[in-house]
Amino acid sequence: VADFTDLQTKVYEANMEIVELGLVVSTFGNVSGIDRERGVVAIKPSGVPYGDLSPDNMVLLRLADGTPLEKGLRPSSDTKTHLRLYREWNEIGGVVHTHSRYATAWAQARKPLPCFGTTHADYFYGSVPCTEVIRDDQISRDYEDETAVQILDAFASLDPMALPAVLVASHGPFTWGGDPAGAVHSSQMLEYSAELASIALAVTPGLVPVRQALLDKHYLRKHGKGAYYGQK
Ligand SMILES: [Zn+2]
Question: What is the Å distance from ligand 1's center to 211 Cα?
């Protein structure tokens, strides 16, 4: 078997990072990463306590059909959702799923997360969408693959790189990025934005989102052609 140590190490570190950031309760959390050139995805094994994880037990799968590269641990039960997002969105290099408190609360409320301030606008170019609730026939057909279908439907007219997060209705958040570390950062900023939004709405019920000009200013100064935030 070819060597995928670099990919496995990045995915392992990202899985440990979501724990350190407080985004994980119990074993509800998984990060994957992809080697696009070789068409291989690495993902956390299913149900293994975080303390027992290591780079070499990150499960390696073929992007095309999800088959494992070698015999070993079973991959995360959410693997089919990750794989379908990688197949549909060529730009993404890492995917994160957690049940982090505030983002999951918004997913359970089945509400998109509006942009109430510049913290959100720096990372997410508008409301973070919430999917439709998954139907019974989808649940019985192929639940994890159909979860990705729900996500893709929510992004039918949205750019996944400008909005690197989604709330899966009645379930929780998925986020992504250019690599596993970037996907973890999206997850951290989604959780923080959801927490801030919850507090802001408690202070001012009926609060409206920021104006487009402020959203544009903050998002576009960090992302895209005219970006000038940070060091060159
Ligand atoms: Zn979940």
Answer: 33
Query: CA dist 27 to 19, 31, 107, 119, 192, Å?
Result: 9, 12, 19, 28, 20
Question: Is the distance from CB of 35 to CB of 46 less than 8 angstroms?
Answer: no
CB 32 within 8 A of CB 42: yes
Reported pTM: 0.96
CA of 78 to the centre of ligand 1 (A): 7
Residue 13 burial (C-beta neighbours within 10 Å; 0-12, 13-18, 19+) = middle
29 alpha carbon to ligand 1 midpoint, in Å?
Answer: 7
Positions annotated as catalytic residues are 122, 229
Which residue from 80, 84, 65, 85 is spatially nearest to 143, judged by alpha carbons? 80
Q: What is the pLDDT along the chain (232 residues), one digit of tens a residue?
A: 689 999 999 999 999 999 999 999 988 999 999 999 999 999 999 989 999 999 999 999 999 999 999 999 999 999 999 999 999 999 999 999 999 999 999 999 999 999 999 999 999 999 999 999 999 999 999 999 999 999 999 999 999 999 999 999 999 999 999 999 999 999 999 999 999 999 999 999 999 999 999 999 999 999 978 888 887 6
Distance 218 CA to ligand 1 centre (A): 31
Overall residue count recorded for the chain in this entry = 232
